[in-house]
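FIELD: query
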Amino acid sequence: MTIKKIVLLVWIIAPMAMSCHTAKTAMGKDHATLRHAAVYGAGDYDFSLVHEGMERVYIVHAPKRYHRQTKTPVVLALHGGGGSAASSVKFFDLNNKADQNGFLVVYPEGYAKKFLGKTFAAWNAGSCCGEAAQKNSDDVGFIKAVLEKVQTDFNVDPQRIYVTGMSNGAQMAHRLACELSETIAAIAPVGSQGSFANCRPARPVPVLHIHGTEDPCSLYNGGICGGCAADIWKSLGASVNRAEWTCPSVPAYLDTWRKLNGCSEGTAITFQNKGALCKTHKNCKNGADVTLCTVQGMGHNWPGATSYGIPACDRRPEGKLCLSWKKTVGALSQDLIANDIMWSFFETHPKDLPSSRFTKDY
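FIELD: result
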C-alpha cells in the first residue's frame, strides 16, 4: 500500500476537519490557577486530565446565554470509533442547539492513538471497540472524572446530565447508563446496540434510541455487526481484520431496557414523519421511558445530517474516497432531526422524575 493511499485513507476514515470554535485553553498552569466552582463563562474550552497515567482530553461548549449563577444541563456527545473530541464538534453539530436551548456540551475523547498526525480514538464499551476494549481501558472511570471536573468548572444541574453518542459512542452511552445510572439522567444513543453484558443500573434510566433500518455496520435486524472500518481499508487495497461481534436486533435490545425500566409492552407513537417513527413504552418506573425511533432507509449516519461529515466528501463529493465511504455507511436521512428529538426527550427526563409522569409527543 503506497504512502499516498495511506494519507488519503487517514483523511477518509477520520472526520478530522477542525471545528470552527476558538478554543480557550484551560490546561496546565492556567488550569491550576482556576480551580474553583463555576469559574468559566460562555465559550469553548479545551481541557485535559490524567486518568490511569494517561493524558485524556475533552472539549466543553458553554452556550452564549450561560451564566455562572444558573444551574445548567449537560449533554455528553461521544464520538464513534476512529473519531476524536475535535471531530465531534462538527459531526454532532450540537453547539447551535446548545446556544438555542441553554445547555452545556461536553465532547470527551476515547482511548486514542495517533497515525500520521491524526487522532483515532475508541471507547471500551464492552465487546467493542479496538485497543480500548482489548486493553480494557477504564473509560467509565474517565467519563466519571470528566463529569466531576465539569461540575467543578461550571454550574451544572446534577439532575440533568445526559449522554448521546454515535456508533461506538452509542455503545458507550448504553454502558454509562448501566454503570453510572446514579449520575446519568437519560441517554439518546444513535446507530449501535449496546455491547456491554450484565447491565445492572442502580435506577431506571430513560432511553431514546435512534437507528436506521439499512445500517450496514450495526444491523437493525441483528446478526454479525461491525467490520465497516475494515471495509474502508479493503476498498483502498489494504487487508485488515474485521472487528465483528454477534449483535441482537435493535428492537430486541431495546426490549432489554424495557424490562430493566419496568415498562409495559404496549407503546405509543410519539413522533412520525415520512420514514421516521418513534414508539415509546408506557408505564415505566420513575417515568423512565424507553423509546425506539426507526428511520427507514437510513444507514450508519447521524439523523438529520445533510453531509457525511468527512473531509473527503466535503472536498470531492463524487470522488473515489467519498464514494467508498458512502457505499460503506449507507444513506443519509432528514426524516428525523436527531438533535431536536434528543433534546425534547432530555428536557422531559430529568433524574428522579416522578413515576406519575406520562410521556409527551416529541
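FIELD: remark
The first helix runs from residue 3 to 13.
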